[in-house]
Design brief:
The protein is α/β, with parallel strands linked by helices. It is built from nine helices and seven strands, in the order βαβαβαβαβααβαααβ. It has one domain: NAD(P)-binding Rossmann-like Domain (Rossmann fold), CATH 3.40.50.720. Strands 3-2-1-4-5-6-7 form a seven-stranded parallel sheet, sandwiched between helices.
């Protein structure tokens, strides 16, 4: 097993933490960005107590200059990024006729423009080294849409458009680019939804339950593996059968 350096954006969140744990278990050295240092350091200490060392580097994925500085710092302290998981995301839900420009722009910048902001500083190094793994964490709602989430659905759908273009451009350079579209996962954000609303969501899932962050992390581990080198431009739905599109 070759140890790689992996950057997981939004790594301190529920799905991000599971991905960090899984990539560490696979033998990789894992880095996460952060914006709030106090929260991030507490997260780092908690993982360290579990035997999972994780590097932290400040970086705002919505800001291209901050992302370039973040990658420069990672390369200086840790090394070149071989695996990039574009996982950071936010919601600003409201029906479109009430949506403000700020609500639209915040979600597009953090969920979609971030893919450019973080990937651009690492792609040339991957091309030179003839190896790379890039995975976008999209969403079921980027596939089927969702009431009150025109901004979020647009951003998440755009992530896969980014994936398939980047996959075509970099396939001959040993770089694979794929998307994972999770369904409703039992993160803190989803569990904060009123129970009666969650019950309605679960009733629509054929498997009959919410997903686990570890199940998304398993899919990430699959895509970044050495043996997944002939899979690129794919979108893997991990949603318990909630949405079964082509």
């Amino acid at each position: 097993m070759t140890q790689r350096i992996a950057l997981v954006t939004g790594g301190t969140g529920g799905i991000g933490t599971a991905i960090v744990r899984r990539l560490h278990a696979a033998g990789h050295r894992v880095v996460s960005n952060y914006r709030s240092e106090d929260r991030a350091r507490a997260w780092q200490e908690r993982l360290a107590s579990e035997g999972v060392p994780a590097e932290l580097v400040h970086g705002d994925v919505a800001d291209p200059k901050s992302c370039q500085a973040m990658i420069d710092e990672i390369e200086k302290r840790v090394g070149s990024v071989d695996i990039l998981i574009n996982n950071a995301g936010i919601t600003r839900d409201t029906t479109f006729h009430r949506m403000t420009y700020e609500q639209w722009n915040e979600v597009i910048n953090t969920n979609l423009s971030a893919c450019f902001n973080v990937t651009r500083p690492v792609i040339e190094g991957m091309r030179k080294r003839k190896w790379g793994r890039i995975v976008q964490i999209s969403s079921i709602n980027g596939q089927k849409g969702q009431y009150g989430q025109a901004n979020y659905a647009a951003a998440k759908a755009g992530m896969h458009g980014f994936t398939i273009s980047l996959a075509q451009e970099n396939a001959r350079h040993g770089i694979t680019v794929n998307t994972i579209s999770p369904g409703y996962v039992a993160t803190d954000m989803v569990m904060a939804v009123p129970e009666e609303v969650r019950e309605k969501i679960v009733a629509q899932i054929p498997i009959g339950r919410l997903g686990k962050p570890e199940e998304i992390a398993h899919a990430v581990d699959f895509f970044v593996g050495e043996q997944a080198c002939w899979i690129t431009g794919a979108n893997l739905s991990v949603n318990g059968g909630h949405y079964m599109g082509w």
